[in-house]
């Protein structure tokens, strides 16, 4: 590929903005200036699907109604651990209105059915004329269990002699764990798997003993987080219409590609015979990357009945079987010198993702601060509970909850402002700016813990996070211009609610000199070019450069046709406000619309992917250099008589490279912060250890924040240009959620002078910490 | 939900001829032949969707004339028809002026949407929110089983008093306030005869019968609530602590009603919600307040007295300081 | 007491039954509010009617249009709207009245359609999210939701808008606390609340 050199903006405006020369592929466009000088990108642009959302006309998977469609329901195990002796579906099959029944079987020798390993495991399914009939039929299926001992509690499961979840090593990897921090589940003993001791940042480094011997203070603590569930408002589910020539799948998914590939592989179908559509989806937060078990079930029922089958889970099923963020028992031993320099970090963690793997605490302790000596051991503990799934910055939210409190504690031991300590140990340039601007906006003025007087005590806290710039190179976008002047952008990518559909319009509009509303964006369909799943904050960095690149190529094609008419060279043309103009001679111009009308073909189109990072990847698979940093400040008030904590306000200072759509970024930061507040104060999966059932698998007792729990959220967004792609933009979904719980925990400590070491912080735990409870 | 026949009742007598079971009886006995009442339906539908009760017939009483009125008598007592919604009580100026604690309790119950649906009759008759009771997978004492799963299980939200049998707490926080005003439940039987039952007698402790939470029988229906007249000297306050402010089930709530002569309390009612399987009058607290000049220290004494008989379970001892705090606060809000 | 009398008049029922037996063409009987408690010995208590469990014809006025559907009495209003009338703007999230995603109005009052039966509706007029914009013009709250980016995944949006429209239509100059109070039953898992608050306050201002 031929390359050329271009000058790019580089650095942080108002801090160290400069320029850098990069060599870029010839078929990618020249550098954009900083956002100030752009017209569409970096602005508050209305979501291009907002009208459909506010009028109720947006069709989500749950809203799909096809002619002849059946409704399906799955039967789930109501015991946590058992061998299945028999499943008798005869009564269900005879039930009026039932059109198909399917039972999951096992490929293992010696048993017809898979063993039950958690209460809620799907066993069979029914498709019927109505959902009510399907539910009735499911209740008629008779299952004979041979129940077995089970274990729910993480620490009980770690003990010798605890009932085993798997007798054998397991090789499978789930998506619950952090990207690049994995083990394959075959190592370990009993219910313990692992440990994970390295990540893409490397493994252990330095010499721990040496590090601790150099320390003036050593902190040795255990931090605990709970299991909590995603609760996307639209549950997992699909509508599948399996016709002989094609399986059409409407899926509530954050990866159309993942669902297509999953179903193609499960049924041994060619990829071009499976079409997955997801125009709107009602939230996922990491849990909706695959076809799950409901996908194959709906497909089997569709095949058996010859009819389209609607299979959306109910709220209880969603809670118990479709993902959760694993808990953590996170041990940190950290040494520091008097001046704050960290000398050693030793990390060990245990957590349970139920029957799945992926309960680590991420890379945050490994990578956030400068520390020469480091080691980590992260263990998975298997329990008889529903499988974990990725959730906004998997592992790292648990990790930050521990690490960022530990740093706070070290600041306390050194009698220093925790913000000042971070200034000393944090090597990140962007976080330096985030700290400065965030502290100013928040009005940070450190006060010693527990110094507020009176019944209601206020406190402030700060916490930081880092998230890598992941890029998925398997991202292609197609741009079409029609002869009537309209533009269409096509990609298989889905919009999980982050606004992907709108930023695609923005980058294409910017490149073509049009307005965002001039661009029609068609996404969420695997007949369009492949795009990554919405996870890891990958999408923006992966998909917007191809969109701009494709628009650039289309524009070049148009210039090639227009140039002779304007008696000039294509390279002398430019676009602005719907006009194609000569760069130097203002008299030579033609409206885009007129130019398109005179084209030889009815449309011109181009598709493009993106090149590697202009500055080179840190890891060849797509790990870019740089940091999606965040520094969050919290103010809380604690009622020391009732134990109630209220988060009064949060200042969230963030960077995500070149911001594309300010209001959408703010929306995501608000969401990340609110989910973090919820994690810190409210929500928790409550399991009954004696029966193995989740007790709050609903919305009224699974506590999430509503309007009156929402703090004032002040967002400080820092632009950071690093000249790494044609848009230089990255996502912000994960970074927004990582630091909040730790910031809130630090603020609660600052308010009452007692640290809780465990979330959620409830009236029960606050009153206990304040020594007001005699048990 | 299961299939059922819908009976659109036109009168109380008509409705009573149709029903053959209380919801509670059917939850425990699962005959599959029950005909039960539905007004707003916010609790019944919940139970049905969980599969805890599958009535054969639903007798809809929501359109029976005359049951959705708030009326005041010449003696200034108030009668709230059973089908009056919580929203209608909340918006009622006379109730807000005279029965502040009741207004506060109603205003803090549920969501705006639910309050437009939920009726006062249904609120009194609703079943506990104990998650073991609400779970199809746990046949607990209240469902005719022989185990209280919460006692040795997850009991953070549960009872700290009178918890010798079932440890659930009653779900109606409105009842906490009603009991503090000496309200009475108006019950009509199949013969059309009306009786007024004091709130304390309306609720049944699980020690007597764990499968029901009130005295209602299959041939009876709540037709209203009677509120005795109150003088201007009768002051009240209600505080509910749910885990969240937006809306939530109570983990501790208290209604205090005091007859005040200046700063002296001549008569007191202190009622605790979410403390016991029924709303609970705290006579020790009432005794402490009666005849005293009410001060911060008397409030502390009353709060301590209210918790004397508390016997917390493994996870809910925090409720003691929490109750003490809100009892003190409610008393001090009055004086 | 005057207030009380007004209230009494307001809460009294006068409602025409909209329920019809399947295949019957006559309208249901008119329910007259006697103003008395039900037992009136002179005439004897009126008798009701039963419907189902098989499907019956249910009529209701939805967004100004009378709709007839055939459904079993066990059909919720949410299901009647979504599955029988194709009005899928109303969302079912918790299915227990805990999240308010399914909010519709009955005679202008917000209720949970997942906890209301189709049979409950009677002659009360149903308004859904599809009926909030009039003659193709968005309601100011809908405009403001677009302007302030008050939806992310959008699944809570219909219910949220129903709560916010009801507020601004019934209260002049609402405060932030008023907006929080009106939306306190609406769950948004994406955490879009701050933008919902801004949008609603802005819409209220523009409605002056």
What does this molecule look like?
Chain A is of the alpha+beta class and 775 residues long. Chain A contains 19 helices and 31 strands. With 335 residues, chain B is of the alpha+beta class. Chain B is 28% helix and 20% strand. Chain B has 13 helices and twelve strands. In chain B, the strands form three sheets. A five-stranded antiparallel β-sheet of chain B has the order 4-5-8-6-7. In chain B, a hairpin with a 6-residue loop joins strand 11 and strand 12. The termini of chain B are far apart. In chain C, 29% of the residues lie in helices and 16% in strands. Chain C is built from six helices and nine strands. In chain C, the strands form three sheets. Chain C has a three-stranded antiparallel β-sheet with strand order 2-5-6, with no helix packed on it. Chain C has a three-stranded antiparallel β-sheet with strand order 8-7-9, with helices on one face. In chain C, helix 3 packs across helix 4 and helix 3 packs across helix 6. The longest helix of chain C has 14 residues. Chain C starts with a helix and ends with a helix. The N terminus of chain C is likely disordered. Chains in contact: A-B, A-C, B-C. At the A-C interface, helix 1 and helix 16 of A face helix 3, helix 4, helix 5 and helix 6 of C. Strand 1 of chain B pairs antiparallel with strand 4 of chain C.
